[in-house]
Amino acid sequence: MTKHEELLHMLMNANGRFVSGEEISRNLSISRTAVWKHVNKLRDLGYEFEAVSRKGYRLLTRPDSIDAAGLQLALQTSVFGRKALILDSTLSTQGDVQQMAEQGQAEGAVVLAEEQTGGRGRFGRKWFSPPGKGIWMSILLRPEQPLRNTPQLTLLTGVAVCRAVRAHTGADAGIKWPNDLLINGRKMCGILLESAVEDHELRYCIAGIGVDVNFELTDYPEDLTSIATSIKVETGQQVDRTKLTAAILNEMEHLYLLYQREGFGVIASLWEALSVSIHREVKVSNPQGDIEGTAIGLDPSGALIVEKSSGERITVVSGEISL
Ligand code: BTN
Questions:
Q1: Is the Cβ atom of 122 under 6 angstroms away from ligand 1?
Q2: What CATH number matches the domain at 3-61, 1.10.10.10, 3.40.109.10, 2.30.29.30, 3.30.830.10?
Q3: Are 88 and 111 in contact (CB under 8 A)?
Q4: What pLDDT shows up at residue 270?
């Protein structure tokens, strides 16, 4: 931890009470002037303090932006998010992580942006990524596994985000196959898993996560109002994006390690428990035409098994379903 992160840690742990300059200077082994400098550094990052002579400093508010120091403090990971680049604006965090990956960056590195000007969704769609209200994040993964297992990582990412959203905000989020997160039937998160492949071998994956956190309904363009929603719209609560980002990365690392240790079975069970698609009538749209039936579960590769009214079972590897 840097000195200003340590200082923040102390002031956050004081839960709104004053901490004297002397105590800070002793705990951090820095001079009183240095304390003042670090307080000002945190002010530049958007933190607000009350400073009273003989009482010390008290944290009033944290920045509304996703902040690096707060993220590091809230992380419980050893690798995921420990290297995190937070940008004001970028074309797409997917491209930024791709560049890092090509330069040899290690697994778990993350790029976050307050805004994406060219956010990308599945099937070449655009992903609406306005500033200050969402989590637009890409994570570098370097799994040593056969290429055919990469769809499992898509499902794992969906489970991680869903668990983090439910635990952190209380929202009743569920997963629509393969990896859209819905609240009350509307989409509040999308996941885009992209893989770099050479000679049929997986080089690395980039897990792109887009969460509509603090949007108001009026923030959406007309074509999205009936299908999209945000955590704030559904819960009525403003969500701390830094803490939710950390919660997602904490879940991601935990599940990723579990997956590497025990395989996909345990992830599949978690996915099925959170799924809003299983045991439901679904319509699968894919290039071969539409299939209607009941979604009955996942096969060992992560594909969705759909049972038609004739009893015939179809395995759906990719595509989209409507409920
Ligand atoms: C979908 O179509 O549902 C997937 C949307 C994925 C959006 C995220 S936001 C962060 C990352 N950067 C992008 O350009 N896309 C992903």
A1: yes
A2: 1.10.10.10
A3: no
A4: 96
Instruction: Output phi, psi for 77, to 5 deg.
Output: -95, 165
Q: Which residue has the tokens 């894919």?
A: 286
Q: From residue 220, how far is each of 130, 134, 188, 208 by CA, in Å?
A: 9, 12, 12, 21
The residue type found at 179 is N
- What's the gap in Å between 133 CA and the centre of ligand 1? 15
pTM for this structure?
0.87
ipTM over 0.90: yes
Q: What was the pLDDT predicted at 12?
A: 87
Quick check: helix, strand or coil at residue 54? coil
**Residue having the nearest C-alpha atom to atom 2 of ligand 1:** 121
Q: Residues 210-237: pLDDT tens digits?
A: 999 999 999 999 999 999 999 999 999 9
Residue 123 CA: nearest ligand 1 atom is 2
The tens digit of pLDDT for each residue in 277-310 reads 898 999 988 777 788 999 999 998 889 999 999 9
**Which CATH number does 281-322 carry?**
2.30.30.100
Most informative mutation of 86, 110, 120 for ligand 1 (most atoms within 8 A of CB): 120
The CATH number given to 68-274 is 3.30.930.10
